[in-house]
Amino acid sequence: MHIPDGYLSPQTCATFYAASVAVVGIAFAKFKKSVDEKTFVHLPMASAFTFIVMMFNFPVVGGSSAHITGIPLITYLFGPFASIIASTVVLIIQALLFRDGGILALGTNVFNMAIAIPLVTIFVDSLLKISNLKNEKVRIFISTYISTNVAALLTAVELGLQPILFTKAGKPLYFMYDLKTTIPAMMVPHLLVIGVVEAVLTVLLYSPLKNFAKIKK
Amino acid sequence: MKKDVGNNFKTILIILFSLAILTPLGLLTQNPAFGEWTEEEIKKMLGFVPEGLKKYAVVYKFDLFDGYSVKFIHNQYIGYILSALIGIAVIFAVFFLLKHLMTERE
After folding, report:
1. Is the pLDDT of residue A127 over 90?
2. What element of type H or E holds B7?
3. Which has the closest alpha carbon to A107: A3, A11, A17, A6?
């Protein structure tokens, strides 16, 4: 899900940089207000956890590979704002140090993963709460599954729009496959495999880690 | 109690390090992720590399740990584990710095 450089037009990159800087800025302001002693004990560990989890690539349908992000889990543990900060830090480090995801594409990658996943997770969870779904595990499963797939869909649409919007002499300038290819290619593995794996792991790890995250004072 | 914090911290560090050592499992699939191909792979697929893609793919040149392989280590599994450990260390350093900056301002 980490878009490399060259795949997106400068216009696309600039748009998503602007959006991401705004949202991460707001999240940082909120995060700063809620910071306490244990924040800096837990958050680096949460960040490190998502970083490590994203290194586990596994084969998926259609002959490609993919990975989960662990972001829904840290969203449930620490709330959306801390989760946005923790995963943005990971994406910056991945781009700068390991060239996993581009530098120009960083704003887009932050938007797709570090922003969309926490916000959609919390949004779907509150919708389910309002509709009186009392079973927490079912709520976690559904909102994780949906947020993972929203992130994949965002990536698919951003990539798939490139050859429609940006061509030169009939040839694509940046990413080469349009929506007809990118949507099924991204969505089938995420709907069938990755979304399910992410959701199951989040449900399984949430309860034990929830107690772990509480520090007795 | 301070002791609880220490115990939790230690346990989580052990979990993180165990996961780091297991990361080469992520290398068992050699399939590239959709939309994360190299220029060579794109050329093989299309017969050409899009002009803009070629131009912007190279804006950033730091490649010591390119793709979680370490340049001076030839074993890809060891390189991958080392990248995992470096990543963890850098993340902790960033948050340490952030903590410092945020508490100093108060």
Report:
1. yes
2. helix B2-22
3. A17
Asked if A173 and B66 come within 8 Å (Cβ–Cβ), the reply is no
Name the strand (E) or helix (H) holding A41.
helix A39-53
pTM: 0.94
Q: For residue A101, what are the CA distances in angstroms to A5, A7, A105, B5, B51?
A: 7, 10, 7, 35, 19
Interface test with A, best of B56, B66, B81, B103 (most A CBs within 10 A): B56
d(CA A129, CA A125): 6
Query: How many Å apart are CA A47 and CA A153, to the nearest integer?
Result: 24
Tally: H helices and E strands in chain A: 9, 4
Q: What are the structure tokens assigned to A170, written together? A: 């009939």
Locus of tokens 């950033």: B60
Q: ipTM surpassing 0.85, yes or no?
A: yes
